[in-house]
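User: Please predict structures.

Assistant: First:
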Amino acid sequence: MERHRLYMANKVGSVLKPDLYNEQERQVCSFVKSSGVVDDVFDRVRPIASMNLYANDNEGWDEVEKRHRYFWSRFRTGFRCSLSITGYSQKKVKLSVIEAHKGINAAIASGKLKPAEPHVTEVMMDQLTGDVRARQRARWAAVDWKLAKELTAKDVTVVNGRIIPCIMSQHSKLCFVQFTVKIQSQQVFAAYADQAKTKLLAGHPEQVFAVEEYWVMERPFFKGLLKRSGPEGAHWRVMARLTLPSKRPDAPEQPEYEFFNTKK
């Protein structure tokens, strides 16, 4: 009887908490903490300049297709999260973005990145470390940063969503969800060449800058029709900060092929 009860407890546990009761899932979850890649990198949605969708190398049709793709990507990703993640809501995603935005920027300004660790993936932490070192090489001795206006959920817009399965094991239920978000904020930024803050190098201590940023938020979860909290300690983290071109990228030139060579 006791053996049967333990067997059933392990069966139920392996369904609700695969990373704790399933040896294979435990190994995968302990090794794979992030997807390590941004899937379907977001491209800025631009106004359609002409009623002729074929003008300028099909620019109008490209925009229509892009908007359609992003809409359904957001819908499918959000629907999957609502099925598989306990307590999921888009508002909670936005609140995680706001908390991470404030914590990461404050950590970069101070040059001490330890407080930013809970908010970022391992890949993102390496990038932040490179940013801090670049500022040190530029001889920024002191940096002041603050929000002129506190962020709210209205300042964060989800623009794309993707589901990335874990490629380490075909039988693992572990997946990663990514939401690309647009953050519109008002920031005050000033960098100085000395600790006394007498020589200004960049920004201005009394000027408010309107900043638009695109961040990729990521979270691990177990795919399925049963809602689960995901691997132990799973939460939303910043996977990447995107730099988007202001203009439409040029279409790649098509190579010319010579199918028939009549010369002898």
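Second:
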Amino acid sequence: MSDREFGGNDDLSLPKATIQKIIGEILGDKSGLTFGKDARDLLIDCSVEFITLISSEANEIAEKESKKTIAAEHIDKALRELGFPEYVPDVLAVAGEHKEQLRTREKKTNKLEQSGLSEDVLLEQQQALFRSATEKYNSGPA
């Protein structure tokens, strides 16, 4: 499967800064190795192609199962069918970590909770603001 089958991926890319950060973490500061810009760009192109290949295969698997959403098991099957079974354990481990992070992350508070005021007090404040706005409107230009 090539770019031509997907209409080209000229508009598809990965953030260069993110890739550079990943490369830096892998190489480490003490390794003394550097990663050239051409090599980074090639890595980005290869990564986009790999993601396109896996997602296309996973999409076909999901469609065969009459599913409208690609799930982790579709990625698992796609990796195996495309000859990358050695990636499956790591991919499933990362997916599990991601699910756990979603479960344990702090629930975002809404404005009502952040105010620290009861709904009754907030309603009274809102009504007072409406009365004030109505009075200003009815009094006309100053």
